[in-house]
Write a structure and sequence with these properties.
Helix content: 40-55%
Largest sheet: 7 strands, mixed
Radius of gyration: 17 Å
Distance between the termini: 36 Å
Number of domains: 1
CATH superfamily: Vaccinia Virus protein VP39
Bound molecules: S-adenosylmethionine
């Protein structure tokens, strides 16, 4: 059965009814983006991102996939001293993101306009936290730059890696998703095998991976 979330609907409804950790001043933005159907991070992904921000207090954050600036603004509230770089290629999203960053005081957020494949190679690290939430089929192509840009001990968070359950099922819901399913499967396996990363796959949201970058002298698989 295809769920919006990987857990069963009763558990999902229960979890979603619990009090949220979302910063209060962003509640109107949260309601707006969800009512309008913008492809923002799920509630579960945002709750987890909030937890990570509280735990890590990152000083430099990179996000790939700004959409309208929602998750970038959430991170900026949780990490008020951080600088946040975020990448978006869709002109309509860029325009809305700029308006939201103005309206909700995203002064520490820098919006990079263009394709992540072009922008990423030109960025300099190190970042303490990288949140990848863009075109799923491109995830494997972004991995080398994400690892390069992440500091040792930094955290790499990736959303939607299980693609509505199609990756674990091993088959897409339609023919044109076959490539995405194959690429996400290869991406997850690469994260798990990567000599510089320790990774776990969490069945929250639409599947999230959390990786930490190891130092070179701890490159061996523990
Ligand atoms: C799931 S949305 C991001 C949601 C956002 N993280 C949030 O929760 O507010 C994915 C975004 O990535 C953008 N995107 C997809 N591929 C991209 C690429 N190659 N370069 C830059 N942006 C890309 C899409 O236009 C879309 O707005």
């Amino acid at each position: 059965m295809a769920y919006d979330c990987l857990i069963d609907p009763v558990t999902e409804a229960y979890l979603r009814a619990l009090p949220s950790a979302l910063p209060r001043d962003l509640v109107p933005l949260d309601q707006y983006v969800r009512a309008q159907g913008f492809p923002v991070s799920s509630r579960e992904a945002i709750e987890f991102l909030i937890l990570l921000c509280r735990m890590l207090q990152p000083q430099r954050i990179l996000e790939i996939g700004t959409c309208v600036g929602y998750s970038a603004l959430v991170m900026s509230r949780l990490c008020p001293n951080a600088t946040i770089d975020t990448i978006e290629r869709n002109p309509a999203m860029i325009s809305d993101a700029k308006a939201n960053l103005d309206r909700y005081h995203g002064e520490h957020i820098t919006l990079f306009e263009g394709d992540a494949a072009v922008i990423l190679p030109n960025l300099s690290g190190p970042y303490d936290l990288i949140y990848l939430d863009a075109a799923k089929g491109q995830y494997p192509a972004y991995l080398p730059d994400c690892v390069r840009l992440l500091r040792e001990g930094g955290v790499f968070l990736v959303d939607d890696v299980l693609f509505r359950g199609q990756v674990p099922a091993g088959k897409p819901d339609c023919h044109r998703n076959q490539t995405i399913v194959n690429r996400l499967d290869a991406f997850i396996r690469r994260l798990k095998d990567h000599p510089q990363l320790t990774t776990t796959v969490l069945p929250i949201s639409d599947g999230m991976t959390v990786s930490v970058k190891r130092s070179p002298n701890h490159g061996e698989k523990a």
